[in-house]
Amino acid sequence: MHNIIATSILALSLSAIPVMAQGKASVRDAQQALKDKGYDPGPVDGINGPATKAAVKKYQEKESLTANGHLDAKTLDSLGVKSGVEAQDQIKEGGSAVKKTYTTGGKKIGEGTKDMATDVKHGEVGEGAVDLGKGVGKGVAKMAEGTGHAAKSVAKGAKNAVVPNEKKVTPDKP
Fold this sequence. Notes:
Elements (H helix, E strand, L loop, with lengths): L1 H19 L3 H13 L13 H13 L10 H7 L3 H39 L3 H38 L12
Helix pairs in contact: 1-5, 1-6, 4-5, 5-6
């Protein structure tokens, strides 16, 4: 049950990245880059409003990008705004961790099932249950490891999408 919840949270986070990649700092940086390149995004205020979307669409058309007016990773990268790409890379790292560990975890569960079948075939039902339990335990532990790593990567990517690495603000010490 916990794996289903964790996987659902991860999937939701992955689907939210395009929105998070348009955090206020990224939008402001993109607006300034558009202005520097001769496109009028309106005020450089970090708000992705109609003027910004129109300027983005014109820029995308000129640069042969998908002209949809969205500040996606390719557009941000083309403008020299790196935070969206960094955030997506961190999210992808999380997805890779889940894929790898869930594959390994599934194999461990399969091995336990195979061992159980062999034991049951030889009349050792109790030993079969033990082998199945060991396989499931090892498999779920491996899956949990990947889910934990993915959650950390998603959190880091989401944070960097909203507050880019180079612009993090630390509170003044008294």
